[in-house]
UniProtKB/TrEMBL annotation, chains A, B:
Tree of life domain: Bacteria
Domain Saccharopine dehydrogenase-like C-terminal: 150-396
Keywords recorded for this protein, A-Z: Plasmid
Protein name (database record): Saccharopine dehydrogenase family protein
Amino acid sequence: MKKNVLIIGAGGVAQVVAHKCAQNSDVLGDIHIASRTVDKCRKIVESVREKKSLKTEVKLEAHALDALDVEATKALIVSTGSQIVINVGSAFVNMSVLRACMDTGVAYMDTAIHEEPNKICETPPWYGNYEWKRAAECKEKGITAILGVGFDPGVVNAYARLAKDEYFDKITDVDIVDINAGNHGKYFATNFDPEINFREFTGVVYSWQKGAWQTNRMFEVGKEFDLPVVGKRQAYMTGHDEVHSLSKNMDGADVRFWMGFGDHYINVFTVLKNLGLLSEQPVKTAEGLEVVPLKVVKAVLPDPASLAPGYEGKTCIGDFVKGLKDGREREVFIYNVADHRQAYEEVGSQGISYTAGVPPVAAAMLIASGEWDARQMANVEELPPRPFLDILNRIGLPTRIKDEQGDRPLSFS
Amino acid sequence: MKKNVLIIGAGGVAQVVAHKCAQNSDVLGDIHIASRTVDKCRKIVESVREKKSLKTEVKLEAHALDALDVEATKALIVSTGSQIVINVGSAFVNMSVLRACMDTGVAYMDTAIHEEPNKICETPPWYGNYEWKRAAECKEKGITAILGVGFDPGVVNAYARLAKDEYFDKITDVDIVDINAGNHGKYFATNFDPEINFREFTGVVYSWQKGAWQTNRMFEVGKEFDLPVVGKRQAYMTGHDEVHSLSKNMDGADVRFWMGFGDHYINVFTVLKNLGLLSEQPVKTAEGLEVVPLKVVKAVLPDPASLAPGYEGKTCIGDFVKGLKDGREREVFIYNVADHRQAYEEVGSQGISYTAGVPPVAAAMLIASGEWDARQMANVEELPPRPFLDILNRIGLPTRIKDEQGDRPLSFS
């Protein structure tokens, strides 16, 4: 039975994590929030107090922390008595925070793959470049480390595992589709850290098809999907974390990721990319200042957290799974629909932050209860999906199924 | 009789100025080129030697100079014995270089209005903010300072004066049109310093109409012009230096400036502007680095000088002048057509640099001969246009006239 949560990061997702931990403080215990900018942590603490999100009276504290500093992170884990670390900070700090958890014997979780600032889209499977290199040590030391437990990656991995367990004898195709049909009213903004957002799209698009890694360029392969609630939407094959673990865990099925983009996003992206403004490599100004263009683009774009108040509309994210059941071909769409305004009203964040921030709290609750305290490193599809989806069903991200029998909530009877 | 030229700056325009000074070294004497980066000056020296541009054997030397340092500039003027300074450096150094010229008693010229790095589009007339504040002192000390003597501003001001002197009794409208129908083959590039290029378009568009300053937004007012050689082209009313002196010197005529833009330029510009990437105000990255977005955009764009080798096509720049002559309404188009490839073959620069760099050399020759050694500050339309256009006719920028009598070269018989 582990408890007391240390949240690393203080962006829009961290805000959701803090609120959801507070709403389940009877299970999770104390809540500590740490990031480079302690003021941002304090604002989250204030927001939790304002909305009276704490279910039971526990410690709720803000801390300044450079999460690249392993010793400082270990010290904070120890001094706060945290046994569960939810890392929703920058993707650059994953390996440092994981190290701190392994050294202090506490559970680790993140929602996106580790990245090094100056590299993009390394050799697939991406998890093999950093995280999985620590798998043997985690197993040996009995460290629970759950990788990529946001929505995508995360819940969509659980959907794939659910399909494998319950709906198919053999799966041939997993197509993960992520559509944000919301409108933030700004000229242009990304829904999470622009640096990470653009880095996803500037490199090679990897998909797992016919038992091998296939490569495409971004926006090279487009497809229209007809989805519940949000309707017909154009999406493009995109590189994404979950493809890199599902490629290993879906018994050879093709795994592709599709993200919805409007023409306006593509135009802005294309202009910035062609000009070299999305580059992670430093350039030198005429005045001799070394600067990474992508970091300047991030600096001028709206803070994703600032989009929340005016955000309208819904997201639809899910897995189209094809394969055989009882000798017959079938297709199932397992999905969630979330609402931007509802998310804002509940936790002060927009829908994309909400879908990314609620799942690690569900996972933390399963670590607290022992059900997911795996004492090894795991991607989400390697863990039993039902308990996870059951909690999500209760805390804000219900699962629905659409197949030849219609469109209905996932049943937990 | 002044001679020996100091060129400030080492970009594409400086390259043209150096070559043209060399081709007229019998009149102009020694040639010194100075900029922050002495290597760029050395490359220009090499290029002049390679193309054997020197008409007579004179000194041709490169110097390192921070032109914001008035004392260093004065020292260089004195040590090189330069009596004519052609400032084609950054628009930020105008006032420092002018000061150095006034203190050493030598002639000053530039091709663009002074700008302060952190301000855009100040109160009209722009010349009143900086340059004209030195006019009384120039007159008192007998300093020749010719402002804005590139093509536009510069030659187009002489065209306006020519129209006033020879083609009209009363002028009602001066519409200056600048069309670059060339193609550099890159995704996107500006034809001169991107920082200055974009700064022209991010602020208010000032025009002089009905005896007052009128304001518009960039790309708000568009118009199709049908021009010799380059044909029908879409242009937009744009803020530009020459409007700010012609407003004073054209006896109350309306003065507008129009620049040609393709849809692609407008799209890239619109994306960058709306994102805030054209801002001259510093932003702070997440890592705490202070940086001016526009300087980063400049750093990622192609160096305008690098466009020269592959540049194809022509430019057409001129003045549509309307008014009354002998009681009748008439319209005259006074213009020049330049060719990118021809410019490259002659002086190693593209056409836009060529049209900007040849006029100050013609002006320098008129200062050397005494005809334009005005011993006061002057905008180009305040000086006799015929000698200037006569030299330009001979050294690469011939003037043509189109009116009800047809389309013909300006006659100098």
